[in-house]
Amino acid sequence: HIFDLARFYLGEVKRVHAVSASLGRSSTKDYDVEDASVVNLEFKSGAVANISSTTLLDDMPGRADLVLYGEKFQMEHGGSLKLRTPGELQEISSRQDPYLNEDRVFIEAVRTGKKKAILSSYDDAFRTLAVTLAASQSMRTGKPVRL
Asked: 3-state DSSP call for residue 139?
């Protein structure tokens, strides 16, 4: 969902360049998941982003945060929403687990066929899929992919 968040805040992606590393650390047959990857995104808005991920943590807790930097501000979207400006920090948090809530909404929509509570349209999900498929293509070819 980090790609969804990046698109939500920064707009549509125009170019993707990604690299990955596979260290051969899995004994699982036909294991084909990268151990680490970095995806660079260029947005039509002029913004750029870098998304990194890894499977190297095993049972250690990881992070799924998006940090945005702008002129005189930093915003972190993770377990809470934090906005830092010169001399000030604002934080919005919830006592509820957002990932659990997201799963509940999705399961209820599948169970009942009612999609009203799902906030992302099929078209929007398709555009995010195009970005992640472009990242996979870039990892395979070593070249940037234009969307």
From this structure: helix
Return the biggest CA–CA distance within the chain: 53
- The burial of 126, by beta-carbon neighbours within 10 Å (0-12 exposed, 13-18 middle, 19 or more buried), is given as exposed
Residue carrying structure tokens 């660079």: 40
Q: How far is CA 10 from the centre of its chain?
A: 12
Taking the C-alpha atoms of residue 47 and residue 56, their distance in angstroms, rounded to an integer, is 29
Residues 84, 90, 94: CA angle, nearest 5 degrees: 125
**Separation of alpha carbons 117 and 76, rounded Å:** 25
Tokens of 100: 């659990």
Residue 136 banded pLDDT, cuts 50, 70, 90: very high
Looking at residue 1, its pLDDT comes to 83
Assign residue 72 a region: left if phi > 0, alpha if psi is -120 to 50, beta otherwise?
A: left
Distance CA 124, CA 55 (A): 27
Residue 122's alpha-carbon distances to 8, 43, 69, 115, in angstroms, are 14, 21, 29, 10
